[in-house]
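Technical note accompanying the year-one report. For the benefit of new consortium partners, we illustrate the data format agreed upon in the data management plan: each record pairs a sequence with a structure-token string. No post-processing was applied to the example shown here.
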Amino acid sequence: MSQLPLLLEPRALAERLPLNNVLIIDQSKRETYLQHHIPAAVHLDFKRLQLGIAPTPGALPSLQQLSEVFSQLGLTAETHVIAYDDEGGGWAGRLLWVLDMIGHHHYSYLNGGIHAWLQDGLPTESGEVIPTPSGYSVSQLQDGFSLTKEEILARLGQPDFAVWDARSQAEYNGEKVISARGGHIPGAVNYEWTLGMDKANGMRINEREAFRSLLSSMGLTADKDIATHCQTHHRSGYTYLVGKILGLKMKAYPGSWAEWGNDPSTPVTTGNQP
């Protein structure tokens, strides 16, 4: 088993290539992947890991589809996955959440993705890498990595629970309405996902101690279970990942605002305060 850290720097990976029993998964736009990708990286269309059906388009697809996707990628129980994308970590973070959900915990996130790799002047390949399929089977989903709408409703207001809303401030306060209703889950705090990326440093995660202190000042602390969401659990793939890297107890709400904001029975708060 490869001993790679959860947060992997581009140069640290480049120095180790080629690696045995490691699967590098690129979730960039396909045209970006074909133009330049990390050597040996295979491409994965993010849509294949989404249900894509209302009211929860961001939920997981069937176990059969998950098995097919990861078999086609060549995943095995012993494989270490390295995930990256071209947007700073949203799709890559969601992929790592999916791996948690299927019980595959051998993985790393390439800090900054292809942006940091190119900024560091590291070698790339063009064209497509065709993986060797495996017989990977997903038999069940794991507990502890996601919450349902009902579970969140039951925990609202509890001192050991918090909600991190990864959407824009305009979506959070209700000015921008995408679902039937705008606003946010009562008590949720808002820190928009891209604020956590250092755009001058290849989209890497912000300096971690300062980031941890900032989140703590917002009530997102290591002693709480933290549910994170956006509209369809894409942007919150990043906040799920970052929270894990910072030592927080993260859980995804894959239903996200697509479900909460379209359900007339759920409580909603507007404005910039939790």
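Partners are asked to follow this layout when depositing records. The CA atoms of residues 186 and 269 lie 5 Å apart.
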